[in-house]
């Protein structure tokens, strides 16, 4: 019982005792009826007062119980203050996202080609003598650069009833010396349509193993070209893209491409199928510098690739392409489009098979490693051109904190040619060139 309730009960008992005493005294002192009536009225008044106090006490108790059962109200946490860059807007009102990385690369070349990063298609053949009389002149060299750094802008425009966006991305790998600004991606999107320059739909970056070398390994492609593309979903895990793309400069018509992607269940990875079709045109000359005949053949290609996550640590990748009459889509195929037939007035398109397999292993949240192998086999390469290219590599990457990555990678590769003779009319000791390099990388993503 509360103190308030005890106090009320005491007051009620005291009032009744007083009234009873007064009634007894009045009855003993006088029998006057008016006095008795007056006493009765006072008793009734006291009873009414006690009843009112009981009602007030009951109402207060109900209110206390109602307050006790109300849910506890917790003040909402204040919304975080957005950073200046997260709220960046263009003059037209588009939301702008800035991204990119600063990257430093160093490389020691035991054997290889002229320049940093992968040049396996042009490595020195064994025994070849350079213009200064040095055998294998590009061996035992050190190189470093920061020109692989990248800067990009992504845009999302506030257009009612439409999904409008775009991207602009550059690096400093342009020009003959790889030291000028180069446009990588530049496109706009409107709902399912894309217009501009980006990676060809015939390629499958999502099914390639991780590599440090900026020029990427044999068997890989990352050709970026102007295009018009339409993409959409066929289901929750299935998507497609079809488009017309700028291909070889001599072609009269754009290249038609198509790609189908299917995600595995539970986010285990993806499988892709691709196709391309183009009219490959070659402009033959009469030996006097005047064009006299345009030869055309049907060029085409198909590809399939997959990336599958076996568990939280191990991921496997594989990709294969067969291409005929094109030297743009896959790296290290320059000049492997056609050769003239026996008449000298016609062409035979060249074909090749490109493949790459790899495995990536996540040691812990900071460390991961990759090992892979790639190859390109040319079906009917002309004399003096590469007959085959192959390359293997292994790397280890370390993330001490999320935006910072350090990497170490070793690459070994070979190229083989037939009937080779260099510009100095010197025959090498054999027709194989070897690529052997150790690379270091440090990168900060922002």
TrEMBL record:
<keyword id="KW-0175">Coiled coil</keyword>
<protein>
    <recommendedName>
        <fullName>DcaP-like protein</fullName>
    </recommendedName>
</protein>
<feature type="coiled-coil region">
    <location>
        <begin position="26"/>
        <end position="63"/>
    </location>
</feature>
<dbReference type="Pfam" id="PF19577">
    <property type="entry name" value="DcaP"/>
</dbReference>
<dbReference type="InterPro" id="IPR045748">
    <property type="entry name" value="DcaP"/>
</dbReference>
<dbReference type="InterPro" id="IPR053713">
    <property type="entry name" value="Bact_OM_Channel_sf"/>
</dbReference>
<keyword id="KW-0732">Signal</keyword>
<feature type="signal peptide">
    <location>
        <begin position="1"/>
        <end position="28"/>
    </location>
</feature>
């Amino acid at each position: 019982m509360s103190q308030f309730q005890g106090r009320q009960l005491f007051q009620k008992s005291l009032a009744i005792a007083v009234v009873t005493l007064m009634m007894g005294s009045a009855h003993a002192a006088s029998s006057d009826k008016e006095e008795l009536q007056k006493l009765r009225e006072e008793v009734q008044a006291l009873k009414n007062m006690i009843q009112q106090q009981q009602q007030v006490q009951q109402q207060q108790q109900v209110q206390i119980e109602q307050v006790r059962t109300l849910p506890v109200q917790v003040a909402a946490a204040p919304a975080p203050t957005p950073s200046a860059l997260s709220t960046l807007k263009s003059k037209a009102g588009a939301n702008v996202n800035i991204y990119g990385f600063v990257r430093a690369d160093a490389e020691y070349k035991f054997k290889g080609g002229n320049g940093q990063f992968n040049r396996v298609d042009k490595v020195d053949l064994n025994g070849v003598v350079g213009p200064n009389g040095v055998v294998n002149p590009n061996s035992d060299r050190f190189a470093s650069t920061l020109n692989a750094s990248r800067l990009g802008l992504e845009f999302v425009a506030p257009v009612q009833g439409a999904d409008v966006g775009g991207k602009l991305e550059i690096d400093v790998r342009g020009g003959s010396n790889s030291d000028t600004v180069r446009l990588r991606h530049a496109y706009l999107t409107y709902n399912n349509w894309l217009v501009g320059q980006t990676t060809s739909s015939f390629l499958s970056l999502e099914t390639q193993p991780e590599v440090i070398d900026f020029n990427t390994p044999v068997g890989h492609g990352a050709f970026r070209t102007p295009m018009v593309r339409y993409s959409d979903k066929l289901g929750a895990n299935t998507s497609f893209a079809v488009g017309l793309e700028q291909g070889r400069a001599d072609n009269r018509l754009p290249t038609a491409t198509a790609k189908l992607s299917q995600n595995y269940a539970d986010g285990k990875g993806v499988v892709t199928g691709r196709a391309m079709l183009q009219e490959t045109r070659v402009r033959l000359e009469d030996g006097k510098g005047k064009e006299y005949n345009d030869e055309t053949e049907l060029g085409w290609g198909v590809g399939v690739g997959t990336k599958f996550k076996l568990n939280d640590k191990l991921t496997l990748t594989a990709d294969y392409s067969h291409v005929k009459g094109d030297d743009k889509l896959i790296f290290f195929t320059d000049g492997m489009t056609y050769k003239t037939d026996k008449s000298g007035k016609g062409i035979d398109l060249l074909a090749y098979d490109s493949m790459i397999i790899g495995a990536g292993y996540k040691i812990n949240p900071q460390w991961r490693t990759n090992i892979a192998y790639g190859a390109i086999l040319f079906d009917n390469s002309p004399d003096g051109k590469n007959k085959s290219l192959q390359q293997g590599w292994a790397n280890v990457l370390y993330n001490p904190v999320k935006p910072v990555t350090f990497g170490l990678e070793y690459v070994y590769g070979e190229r083989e040619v037939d009937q080779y003779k260099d510009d100095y009319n010197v025959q090498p000791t054999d027709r194989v060139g070897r690529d052997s390099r150790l690379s270091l990388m440090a990168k900060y993503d922002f």
